[in-house]
Each structure stands twice: as structure tokens, then as C-alpha cells.
Amino acid sequence: MILLLLFSPFLVAIGWVLYMDSSNINMIEEFYKNNSCNTIYDYKSRYKGLCKDNITIINNQFNIDFTKNIYIKYDDIKNVKKEDKKILIDTLKRSEKLYFKEKIDTDTFYEGLNKILK
């Protein structure tokens, strides 16, 4: 009984984190849907999606701030290179590395990006 009382705050904290994560995922999916995005991948709490005018990257943290999204406009992309499970994108302003869990995900995203860029 005492152990249950000692572990209950820990269990409540885990439940809260799981609840917050699931509500964040719903908000992220809604954001991508509203912005006509497809080919969406998540790896290490970083969502990447090919949208109508740009690549949109959203970091999934406890509180999602959509104003801190990273947008890479297709017109600004100078070079795209695929290396194993990552894609390197050079733009006029900066370079960005997109990591993926599986090589097939990297290939699919890379192919979709190249179709848009042509």
C-alpha cells in the first residue's frame, strides 16, 4: 500500500506526458492537413512534410509553438543530396539535415522532393 502511494505521483506524471504527446500529434496532423501537406515523416519528435510551397518541419515538444516551424521554400533550394538515412538540403540562407528512421522513408521523401523541384 505504501509503495502504491510512493509510486502514484510517478504514474500520474507518466500519464500526463502520454496525454500531452497524443494531443500534440493531433495538432500536428491537423496543421499538416490544413496546409495541404503530404509525405509526412516523424523521427525523434521532428516532423517533416512536403507541403504545397515548402518543406515544413515541426519539432514536437511539450508545448508546440507553430511560429517556430522551419519552412524551406522550394524556390530557395540550391542542392539536395541523399546520404544513407538523411537528406542534406542547401538553400540560399542555410543548410538543413533531415533524418529518417528507415532508408525507405528517406528514399520516398527524396523522390517526392525531386518531383516537386523539377
Can you describe this structure?
Helices cover 41% and strands 33% of the residues. With 118 residues, it is α+β, with helices and mostly antiparallel strands. It has one domain: PH-domain like. Strands 1-2-3-4 form a four-stranded antiparallel β-sheet, with helices on both faces. It has a three-stranded antiparallel β-sheet with strand order 5-6-7, covered by helices on one side. The longest helix has 33 residues, at 2-34. The mean pLDDT is 84.
Please describe the topology of this protein:
Layout: H1 2-34, E1 38-43, E2 46-50, E3 54-59, E4 70-73, E5 77-83, E6 86-91, E7 95-99, H2 103-117
Antiparallel strand pairs: 1-2, 2-3, 3-4, 5-6, 6-7
Summarize the structure.
This protein has 118 residues and is an alpha+beta fold. The protein has helices spanning 2-34, 103-117; strands spanning 38-43, 46-50, 54-59, 70-73, 77-83, 86-91, 95-99.
How many DSSP H or I helices?
2
Q: Work out the radius of gyration.
A: 18 Å
Helix content: 40-55%
Which percent band covers the strand fraction?
25-35%
Order of helices and strands: HEEEEEEEH
- Low-confidence segments: none
Number of strands: 7
Class derived from helix and strand content: alpha+beta
Sketch the major β-sheet: 4 strands, antiparallel
What value does the average pLDDT take? 84
The CA-CA distance between the termini, in Å, is 65 Å
Widest β-sheet, arrangement of strands: 1-2-3-4
* CATH class (first level) name: Mainly Beta
